[in-house]
Amino acid sequence: MALCRSCNKPYESFISFGPTPIANGFLLPEQFTDEYFFELAVGFCESCHLVQLVNQPERERMFNDHYAFYSSTSNAMAQHFQEFAETTIRDYLPSPDPLVVEIGSNDGIMLKHFAKQNIRHVGIEPSANVAATARAAGINTVNRFFDEAAARDIIAEYGQADAFLGANVFCHIPYLHSVAAGIKLLLKPQGVLQFEEPYLGDIMEKTSYDQIYDEHVFFFTVASVNNLFKQHGLEVFDVAHQNVHGGSMRYIIGHEGTHPISAVVHEQLLYEEKQGLYQIDTYHTLRHNIERSRDALHDLLVNLKRENKRVVGYGATSKSTTVTNYCQITPDLVEFISDTTPIKQGKFSPGVHIPVRPYEEFQAEYPDYALLFAWNHANEIIAKEQAFGRDGGQWIMFVPRVEIQAYDLVRQP
């Protein structure tokens, strides 16, 4: 039986998605025969309430010099990270010469707001290509993985940090104990860790199983985050729910006993208990809901094919890899996936090998239906695609339920 990555106790696997490729592993035809697969399975630890992948590929397979995601491609996320930075500057940078460190800083989408105000900053980014993009934009970025050794190196060069930030990265890291130990060293006595990740409560409510893929080794609740960081003398003292990425939670953490615990923390813990997020039976129910969603989406696409309707995917996201492989969505059901990211265009989706084509091909000849893989950006996308709707195009949604929606009725789940 597998042992929990947080508390080292045995835990139970409750679902397997079967053999699954690297979510961001978009590839060329000559790479098909050597494509890597692993079993994508998820388990729940009743001891510390942590939901986690049973297996995760080596980190170098996921984060490397051809990583295919740049944060700055979304205007909505750019605005979100600007607000995140402004909140940090306002609330958590009291010293006259503060230092901000961000883990998984990507192309500098958040740190640039500190750089503009001449605030000392260090980005830690393991993917060489996006780290280079950040440095070219004037963001102080180190190309490495963060752990306790990295924390000591930062302290030696820059001193301790007032704020340590992360967005959609802590859930990627299986060795979180080394990360937490490094943060404990790196933070000043009044220093604050803020990080946000897709929230398990939202995944449960929306059956958004596409959040489950190789990079996301953890699916957090307030309880599981607190249980992990308390092992390192740190504690959650505030939380703030965010609407990004289909529903995320921002965890605000400090040295134990340093900050008063917000009432919002207690309220969220009560919500989690009432939702059954600390009980294995809840996850068996989630499995049944996921299986029903899978079958409904596959059946819908098969029926549309029988009617000779054209279906095109919209957004070659990491999350789409789980959906296409688990639901057996192949190129005969979805003609191609439209995406604006140059590094993905001309390649094929992981596993099922649906062509990824430039956005201009979507515009040139609208399909009958667009399968919205990037559903978490629905509001931004639908506002942009009014012409598709006026031309008679309709959207296929699968979160929170499988359904066809007219363009003027779509709302972000």
Topology of helices and strands:
Blueprint: E1 12-21, E2 37-44, E3 51-53, H1 59-62, H2 75-92, E4 99-103, H3 111-115, E5 120-124, H4 128-136, E6 141-142, H5 148-158, E7 161-167, H6 176-186, E8 187-198, H7 200-206, E9 218-219, H8 222-230, E10 234-242, E11 248-255, H9 263-274, H10 280-306, E12 311-314, H11 318-326, E13 337-339, E14 356-358, H12 359-364, E15 369-372, H13 378-384, H14 386-390, E16 394-397, E17 403-406
Helix pairs in contact: 5-6
Give the CA-CA distance, first to last residue: 36 Å
Write down the domain tally. 2
Rg (CA only): 21 Å
Bulk shape: globular
- Helical run tally: 14
Percent in helix: 25-40%
Q: How are the strands ordered across the major sheet? A: 6-5-4-7-8-11-10
Unreliable segments of 5+ consecutive residues: none
CATH level-1 class of the largest domain: Alpha Beta
Descriptive report:
The strands form three sheets. A seven-stranded mixed sheet has the order 6-5-4-7-8-11-10. Strands 14-13-12-15-16-17 form a six-stranded mixed sheet. The protein is globular. Helix 5 (148-158) packs parallel to helix 6 (176-186). With 413 residues, the protein is α/β, with parallel strands linked by helices. The chain is built from 14 helices and 17 strands. Helix 11 (318-326) links the parallel strand 12 (311-314) and strand 13. The protein folds into two domains: 18-44 and 308-413, Rossmann fold (3-Layer(aba) Sandwich), CATH 3.40.50; 71-278, 3-Layer(aba) Sandwich (Rossmann fold), CATH 3.40.50.
